[in-house]
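Researcher: Next entry: OsmC family protein (Alkanindiges illinoisensis).
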Amino acid sequence: MHASVRWLENVAFEAKSASGHPIIMDGSPEYGGENRGARPMELILMGLGGCASFDIVTILKKARQDITDVRCELQAERADSIPAVFTKIHLHFVVSGRKVKPNQVEKAVHLSAEKYCSASKMLMDGGVEITHDFEVIEAE
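Model: Predicted structure:
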């Protein structure tokens, strides 16, 4: 895997993935940013949500669950001192579909957290407390 990050100006940067997708990162105005993009730590949080959501969708599809939407809402706490690392992250999955079985969603969340999500594993090994819950919504 490869990525590159190029300084644009002030505290703004363009990151580019090996697959060629660019993302703008920028610092907060208090540090000279212009709010042109996500903060780097926000990208880590979003990456965790994306990694876990990928697992949930894949596992539920393999379990033949008729899902129509999967959302992951994340809440994080950071240390008060520098470096302001994540200390706690909570992932709340909202799974919509037709006759989706809650026990299948629970199993998918557990498998993602304990076995498949590389981002979650990396953060937990770094001392971050990660918790999960979910809700199932019947689609119309």
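Model: Note for the record: Helices lie at 40-62, 102-116, 118-125.
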